[in-house]
Amino acid sequence: MKKTVMMLISVLIVLIGCSGKTQKETDYFQLEKVAKIEVYTADKPDKPVHIWKSHSDLEGFVGGLQLEDWSMTEEPDAAAYDYQFRFLQEETVKLGESANKQQGLQEFFSLFADMDEQTVMLEKGKLKLHFSIPESVGSYLEQTAL
After folding, report:
1. CB neighbour list of residue 114: distance below 8 Å, 6 or more residues apart
2. How confident is the model over 20-78, as pLDDT tens digits?
3. In whole angstroms, what is the distance from residue 119 CA to residue 99 CA?
4. CATH code where residue 121 lies
5. Does residue 50 lie in a domain region?
6. How many structural domains compose the chain?
7. What pTM did the predictor assign?
8. Is residue 101 part of a domain?
9. Could you tell me if residue 15 is inside a domain?
10. All residues at 6 or more sequence positions from 95 whose CB lies less than 8 Å from its CB, including other chains
11. Which domain holds residue 136?
């Protein structure tokens, strides 16, 4: 019995000790995985009007969103989204696959912006979250989309 308890405690110590990588409070998204942001308008939903690829541009864009000022809201009755921001990341290397294999990009999540209502919808798979945004963030999204 003592050996089992000691073994369990040893395993817990090892597992806790291996999690030395801490995440900063400001890391809302895992930016190291995001490789590209594509911007689409309601007029041209099939062709991106703007593309960011550099890590500094991606960080700058997310920093300008002022996420701490967003507040959750109900889904608007008639949401007409003006812009879509598609966040793309490199595909994850799965167990048994070669790390040298050419990895494509897949959609990580999308952010839809409605400038009339000053709301955004964050969509990741089947999950849809609605937020009201400050006017300054709305104008920032409009400026960056052009």
Report:
1. 76, 79, 80, 81, 82, 120, 121
2. 444 444 444 455 677 889 999 988 888 999 898 888 888 888 889 898 999 999 888 77
3. 40
4. 2.60.40
5. yes
6. 1
7. 0.71
8. yes
9. no
10. none
11. 24-145
